[in-house]
Batch of 2 targets.
Target 1
Amino acid sequence: MQHSDFPQTEPTSRQVKVSLVGNPNSGKSTLFNALTGLHQKIANFPGVTVEKKTGYSKIYNSSTGKPTSLEITDLPGTYSLYPKSPDERIPFEVLCDPGDENHPDLVILIADGTNLKRSLFLASQVIDLKIPAVLALNMMDLVKEQGIDIKLDELERRLGVRIVPVNARKGIGLEELKQAVISKLHVPENDIFETGPLAPTLLKKIRSILEMRSDYAALQIAHHRDAISGFHIPQQQKKDIEEAMSTHEFDSIKIQSFETLERYKVIHEILQICMVKAVDDKPSWSAKIDKLMIHRFWGYVIFLGILFLIFQAIFTIAAFPMDFIDQTFTGLTEAARNALPKGVLNDLLVNGVLAGIGGIVIFIPQIAMLFMFIAILEDSGYMARVSFLMDKLMRKFGLNGRSVIPLISGVACAVPAIMATRTIGSWKERLITIMITPLMSCSARLPVYTLLIALVVPSKLIWGVFNLQGIVMMSLYLIGFLAALGAALSMKWFVKAKERSYFIMEIPVYRMPRWSNIVYSIYEKVRIFLFDAGKIIIAISIILWFLSSRGPGQHFNEITQQIEQLSTEQNIDQDALNKLESQRLEHSYAGHLGHLLEPAIKPLGFDWKIGIALVTSFAAREVFVGTMSTIYSVGKDDGESKTVRDKMQAEINPDTGQPRYTPAVGWSLMIFYAFAMQCMSTLAVVKRETGGWKWPIMQFFFMSALAYCSSLIIFQLMK
Amino acid sequence: MKTALVKLSDLRRGARCIIDSFTDDVMKQKLLEMGCLPGETITVDRFAPFGCPMAINVSGSTLSIRVDEAQSVIVKPLA
């Protein structure tokens, strides 16, 4: 699944470009959602796969009523303008490259009122760039609760920017913030921390080359000498800067830490005047919860328990809406078949398009639920605890505590999961995480698992509470996870480390998940699944319909004629008709393709029909179900609509006279889908993230080989 | 009385200390930005299972840091 732009009704008048800048966990996304609502689009920053969220908002001046259109870009959370990872590079580039397409007209700085010192560190850096800014002081409810008193007027005067206290979760202060954004903002005269003296002649030189207002922006340019070549400024200016840099001495590391220390000193002084904090040493409720949540034993028990509950819920609760969708589509198919005149068009619509759409829509409940749980875990702050708990274990496998989040997200979709590896600082750990993430069972496999489990695993209760099908489902996820760990372990030995790995991160306090954030997240993910993956699935469904309803040679035409003759008769011989239908499929283009593959996949227990599905699902796994729907509704058009599961269940293996889908075939197929690399989008993202074809090609071959061998063993043992 | 300086990684759970200096430039910059400034007080909140990473409380937030990273932080233990 790929992230892409979706049609957006964009206001035509000139838009004010706004960047949202803040620390991680400062409530940035909540504020972004609150400001833009659903008028968002997700794309990537040019050249990198760092997710870029852009939203639109129209603000009416409260006194004149004049509207202003804003284009708000949510920049990745960072602690400073000095990038340590590809993610953190974005704020620097957008804010310091005047030619960048996202370079803002103004900045909304978001500060966590309960951690003002650190928030103001980043804020003061941005203010010193002399870009017009408003400071949204967030979490004012917690500020009050913790007995912190902030003197806003004084702080405003010291920082030189407007400050608006907000509570982004509850939407308090938003209107004031919006009005402040459209009011005339002026840039403060003085620097909060004066940078000029750090390298006076060099900074003056850079300022004059780029005609800059700010010493600090010039200093940032000097620090990021290597990034200048990517800036959107005239070549001559780049050359001049390069020349200035080579003639001046500039010790970047030393100046960075000097600035950091001095800047903190200034902020400390400001806060001594502007903030009074009641001494409060009693442990917060967050710390109390953590006694249990990251306990050396109970921590793991709770983590496993949470995962278990999630899979149970996905399998049992989602079944209700899924049944409903299933029935609706069966009814719809029936209605369409009867309402439309018989012919090719009817056939295409019912067996090609509707079958394809039905195969996609039915998985929305499960995908939505999965993303809901992931969003809740992330939003509540629990995911950071999971990283903390797992780091030591993960390192044994050449991974990082931060690999856990991509791995868990991989359960939803490998594409965003692989993008999430950008927070891992070490190249080796990041590469291994990228390589093994597709082994985690993603939501595209869910349809396949669901179908196959329903076919070969009886639905019964174990110990009176747990559904056996749910347990099998969870074990498939577990198998994927174990395979991922095994693959990581073997990669650990032959991938060379480029640099030291580090793992320093904040453990945020627990917060109630923000339901609106979760809704946005679900909406976004479902939309991507429906439209991006859906497009491929429908296209493939139609191609498949064509391949399976047309065939080469005289024989195919003869069968078709016989079928037509037979179906016009008064007393239809159903058995004979079914046989003919089946023969027709076998002689269609699709049948030929499947037959071509059969010798290779027969040892795995697969027949030529599964062969067709394997071919089509190389684009995307979930196509398997759509393919099966098409194959079976074309093959056994017996006048009444049955679900694909019923039809597969009724399939008889002509060699044995027994049902085709025995447990051995079902398991072999499930394991094949668990391990095989069948996702073009993932390969494309891996290529982008690793900068070449080497790793995606290796990934493709190792996963396919693993799938083939495992299925072979499973089938030969179980049959 | 002058207390001997130790590495942050040598402290036990619940111990408090004051940041003195850093022995690694890259870690130093990262820690400074996150609010670990010389003179700040650190409380060792806990160690993760199997002894690594460790969670520390510093200037109002909780950070997770690996033991080998904590070796580069020189601190003055408080009684």
Note: Strands of chain B lie at 6-7, 16-22, 41-47, 54-58, 61-65, 73-78.
Target 2
Amino acid sequence: MSKKYDILIIDDEEVIINAINMIAKFNEYTTASATNATEALTLLDETSFNLIITDIMMPKMDGFQFLEIVNRKKIKTPVIMTTGYSTLENAVKALNCGAIAFVPKPFTFEELTSVFKRGIEYSKISNKLFSRGNSDDLLSIIPCPPKYYRLGFDSWMNEEFEGTVKIGVTDLFLNSVGSLDNIDLMSVDENIYQGNSVLKVVDSDEYIHQVLSPISGKIVSVNEKVLENINLLAKDPYFDGWIYTIIPFSLKAEINNLTSCSSDI
Amino acid sequence: MKIFKKIGTRLILAVSFTVIIIIGVFAYFNIESHSNNLISEVERHANQLSETVKNTMQFDMLLNNREHIARVIKTVAKEDGIKYIRILNKKGEIIYSTDSTQLGLMLDKKAESCYACHSENEPLQKLSINERTRIFKLNSDSSSTLGVINPIYNEQSCWNADCHAHSSEQTVLGVLDITVDLKEVERLTNNSKRDVALFALIAIVVIAIILRVLVKILIQKPVRELLQATNYVAVGNLSHRINSSRKDEIGKLADSFDNMTVKLAEARMQLFQSDKMASIGRLAAGVAHEINNPLTGVLTYSSFLLKRVKNNPEMKADLEVIVRETKRSREIVKGLLDFSRQSTPKKGTVEIAEVIDNTLAVISNQLKINHIILEKKYDKKIPQIMADANQIQQVFLNLLINAIDAIGKTGGTISITTKEIFLSPYGTFQIRNAMCPNSHSLMDEKHKIDGFPSIKLKAKSSQNEGFINLDPIYGKHQHHYGIQFKENEIINLFCPQCGVSLLDENKKSPTCGAPVYNLIIPDNGKVEGCTRFNCHWQKWDAVDSAGDINFVEIKISDTGSGIDPKFLNKIFEPFYSTKGQQGTGLGLSVIWGIINNHKGKISVDSTLNEGTTFTIHLPVCYE
């Protein structure tokens, strides 16, 4: 593995590869590309990448099958999934299968840049986490508490005694965003749906990062403390740093699309 | 031969055969009796003649006037049909005969004229009238003849006569034998036979003609129509109808054929529709995917350029338009994708007025074009409901488009009214859990009534026992009976698990006085009901006292063409459309499905040429 690139772009359309490549180049990332998943897997054997962005609907092997093989091969490179067939189901499935982000097509320059930024950061974090011995950075990611459920590494939910559910953002997501500048919350009485954007996090470079909701429901309260003090999010992401309390619509069905945090430890 | 394969020919052959047999048997007995009558008439006549001859000759015989006797015989024999008359003496010698060649011939005992008496060894002394005649043929090809023998008995005058020819010991002196020709009788009999045969022939021909006509009218024509109809259907013309006005079996067959064609057409339509919907879905998904890829190119490059031309305000403004419009396209495609998706209902809190207003925004142009005045009468205080806003919006959209179509280009009014109403739980509230006094659950998850688990009870009547599944909706009586009951019969009810009686001996049904059953509802009192087979009394105090259930009522009325009363009960059926080829016939059935999924109700009220009102009841909280 002599060569090393920042981003591997997989899409069956040349124009998309070119567009993504252009955005990556502008942000000074090095790239390689493949027009199908098989070609991409061969590339992965001889080259290492910091980040992979793959289309979902491709001939022969689709994005999900590709992601499964990547997981099976224990390739730690984070994967971003993108598709023109952007349904909530696809978004939830992508995150649940281990993708770090789901970007519906068509996307803007800014949307993709922010996802790249977070992806590269995520890659750095996971490299540090898995390279033991290099402990001088004192990097620590707070794990998601047991009995919580999470949607990929985006968001978590926890059922409360009253039947309401608390929702928040995972520490890994916050860490990959970097320094927070602002957050954009929804308001009480609004309905949220699993896989839909539920929170916009703005970083210091003014890039907007979307957090997808782990569950559907009606917002009954918003954590005002987080709005007052944005650092609370990073300080205590799983307890005091909650975002919304919601009344879930169909908890039982939707919980099947989530990962139990009990299995993380 | 092809002709023998036809029903008509076969029927005619069968009937002809039967007619021949019947007429044949009838004719045989008829002719037989007719000919017997004729013969006995001839017989009687011959006997009479024989007696007359005998009596006439008696005096001549006493005088032994032989010439006179011969003359008498000859005279008599001239009568029509008499072949010959002869007299034989005791020895068998022909002493008189009209046929002079026979005179003096000797007949033995076996001769036709003799054997009547001489068939036994001892000759008969007396011969009754009936035994005197016999029918025989002189030779095989001649006509039959009837012979009458008349024994001439010895009398006192005979042995006292002067001639002393006979002694007093003799019994029979001779035989008078008259032979009558039966040619005439045979001719008449043959005539009868010929008439009967002719009659049979005419009968067969007439019956055949009648049958032929009847078969043609009753069988061939309708069968040909049916055959033609099957051919039409076979080549795919499912709109062909026979429309038979007949009430017989073939008419019923034609009706059932028409019915089958209608069902076939419906099934084909259904297939076509579901196929069409699936195709639209696939198409939309495909289009979304195909358009999103080029849109990605446009959006990324334009947003990238926008980033790079910060110092050129003119170009920046232009690029902003491109980015904005591409983003708009993105939203349109997203909408298309949402439509195509078999979206699972996403329940949320819904503000009905807001959903209606969103829908009205979509069709505002159409309202304007069709000169429709909109009247909104919203109740501001109605609560939010738990529902899928998208699905509810689809309901309103469909109903409003129907209303616009019903009004047409001439203009009219659509009014939308919302209000909160309270409906009694009787007939709407579901019994979710019921137990016997020994705490055994009575719920039967396997046997559902209208989609809800029923309540299973063991039932005993005076004659038999079995199970009853009670409708779990309080006050609704679509029970399923596993055994039969008589009208007004009182049913004894037991727990199917422990057999404990569910009857409350101390309480009587207030409507008919029959015993009352009790179902224990955990944490929610008890449900009581009447045990009489067709008494529908039921009471659930705990639910009744909790008060009525609140619903949101939405009425959408138009002043359009209205719906024909005879179609009113069909409009919620899938693939029923009054719009002909224009409509999919799915709209109202989908609406019904959505409202039903929300545990709500939709009803329609319409007057032809005056307008239609749809009333929807949605429960405020349906879980």
Note: Chain A has nine helices and 15 strands.
